[in-house]
Structures are given as structure tokens and as C-alpha cells.
Amino acid sequence: MNRQFYTDRRFWIYAIALFVGYTLAGWFLAAFEAPGFVWLGMLGMTLHLAKAGTEAIIVANAWVVSVMFVGAVLKTWPTVWLPDLPMRNASLWAMILIGLWGFAIALVMGLAWGPRLLERFGLKPERHFYFLLGIPASGFGLGCLIFYLGWFP
């Protein structure tokens, strides 16, 4: 392949979608006041997905389901949105949680298929890991920062 990976428009669409998705995920984790072990688990799953690719999908999905299950059992909800929504309108709360679960699974799948996509774009295989770890980790950090600075209520 003679072209550089960064000249392919699809590469930039993938990179921006991954960054925006993980930025939103970081914002959601901060808004839901996720404890430190959830943040560490998410970063660990990101590291595992970046390294193992599609082989890590089952473990990552199990982590996402576990976090969502605990959140549903504890009726976790951000105080920046209607704080009494889980008690007042349980069906809407459940639909929003299912949507968040779908969003999280889409992020897992996007990251897991990353090495194969990056290979098609012409990025060298030894750089896949750094790209697939750097984009989500910086997105998590930026999303958390945006929440705590109050830029996106």
C-alpha cells in the first residue's frame, strides 16, 4: 500500500468516532459517579481490547454487563439529570440504561475490531496497540474533565 494511513478519510472517521465515543463514555462514568474500581476496570478492559482485539470481546462484554447490572440493582442515576427518575418513571429509566448498554457494547466492538480496520488503512501492526489505547484513554480523561468543569451539563 503506497498511501499513508492518515490520507484515508475512513481512518479519520474511525478515529474521530472512537474518540468521541470514549469521551462520552468518560463523561457518563463521571456523571454516574463511578467508583475508582470501575474506572480501573474500564481502563483494564480498554488495554485488553487494544492488545487482544476480537479475542477479548467476551470478557469485555461480561464486564459491561456486570457494571450495568450493578448500576441497575443500585438504581444508579446521575444527579445532573432528573435525580428521582429511577423511582418516578422506571420504564424510561430502564430504556435509557438499555441504550447506555448498547452504546457501551458498540464501543467495545469498535475497539475490538480496530486492529483489523487499522491494518486495512495501512497502519503498521506494531502501532495498533498504541493507537487503540491512546484514543480511548484520552477520550475517557477528556470526558471526565468536561463533566467536572461543567462544560456539558
Number of strands: 0
Average residue pLDDT = 89
Give the helix level as a range of percent: over 70%
- Rg, please? 17 Å
Unreliable segments of 5+ consecutive residues: none
Number of helices: 7
User: What's the overall geometry?
Assistant: elongated
Report on this structure.
The protein has 7 helices and no strands. With 153 residues, it is mainly α. α3 (57-73) runs antiparallel to α5. The mean pLDDT is 89.
Topology:
Layout (H helix, E strand, L loop, with lengths): L8 H23 L4 H17 L4 H17 L11 H4 L1 H23 L1 H8 L3 H25 L4
Helix pairs in contact: 1-5, 1-7, 2-3, 2-7, 3-5, 6-7
Concise structural overview:
The protein is mainly alpha-helical and 153 residues long. 76% of the residues lie in helices and 0% in strands. It is elongated and about 55 Å long.
Task: List its salient traits.
153 residues; mainly alpha; elongated
